[in-house]
Specification:
flat; about 35% helix; alpha+beta; Cyclophilin; ten-stranded antiparallel sheet
Amino acid sequence: MSVLLETTVGDIVIDLLTDHAPKLCENFLKLCKVKYYNFSPIHSVQKNFSFQTGDPLGPLSKESDGGCSIWGLLSGDPAKRTFTAPFHPKLKHLERGTVSMATVPLASDPDTRVAASQFIITLGEETDYLDGKAAIFGKVVEGFDALEKINEAMVDDKQYPFVDIRIKHTVILDDPYPDPPGLREPSSSPPPSDAQLRTVRIADEQELHENDHLDEEELEKRRREREARAQALTLELMGDLPFAEVKPPENVLFVCKLNPVTQDEDLELIFGRFGKILSCEVIRDQKTGDSLQYAFIEYEDKASCELAYSKMQDVLIDDRRIHVDFSQSVSKLSDVWRQDTNNKRRARARGGWGGVQELEKRRQYREEDERSSGKDYNMVYSKEEMKGRHDDRGSNGRRSEGRHDQRHDDRHDRRDGDRSHKRTSDRDKGRHYRDRSRSPRRGNRDDDGHRSRDGYRHDRRDRDDYRRRDR
């Protein structure tokens, strides 16, 4: 959530801390929405410390009431002009550009501080004096050059600038809070009141009267130009535009009210008679592929584009009368600019981590002189942290080592016994297999391993005896 403050010395963008100070942020956002801060003077400028603003009249006006909260402004109830300011314990005034709501102690309870509309922006570092006195709700993210101009401004003895510095306009970039009952946003910035004009000093006198000699038409034109610049700056801050001053291309036509059956080739054929076409594209739905009935036609030069614009208005194409205009889209320019910026960033990058070239992986190693090697190396604990660990291991460690060695010897002996038993059983098993596979002896064999003739006769005689017995 962000708010843009347009001041007479430059623009200031404030990011709001809605998670830590929701009520303060809501009050500030709604006051900006109703243009309450317009023409508010910047005062109490303390060099390298802070400045204050938010009162529409400022301290120089006797009619000033010091400002009012959004709830008191809408209801008109004086009791709601201020509200109790919450202080978040984690938010401190430690950096330049810290934005906090000015507070005062409650008359009935000095320990309770209340706020209204005025806020403070720090101009230096270590401004912790404001802790507990101003309630932080945001921080400046852009516009530090404007802060520097305010810091260098010439002031009187009451710390009021001699040259008027005022908030001209406020733009809300994002508002997550619902509007309270009765809030109506004005259609344009209201002019300064008579009471505000009476507080004007030197500088803005010329700016206040620069439009006195202009007619209503010229004033309306300037107002639209000013709003267009503000909207372009808003789109730049949101990332939709590469820069606020970007202009659409002059050689691209926008064609709408097309028939859904009209194709790219049809348009290129019809519009091609006015000049060379670089690209012709009918925009289609990404999921269904159906035509969205409008297209962009890019010509090689500006003259061809202007000729096609003058000739093709309300022409009948596929039973539809089309509308032709110059394209206001800068998406292609934005893509080219973004790609070029990313390429330059990658070219300058050294190393990278997580897909982003500028990032490096955070190193968790110890200092070089504390590193060790071998089994004692650790990435987490340093030598000082490990001293106690070595002492605690002491006698308990020795006893545990003895038990560990004994268990290791038992396992070793048991393992050797298993191995010897296995070898014995394998040897017996092999002998058994060999006995079973050995064939019975059949007579004597000679030295060459052949059966002798006497043995052969002896075996034959035995077989004949067996046969006679069987009979």
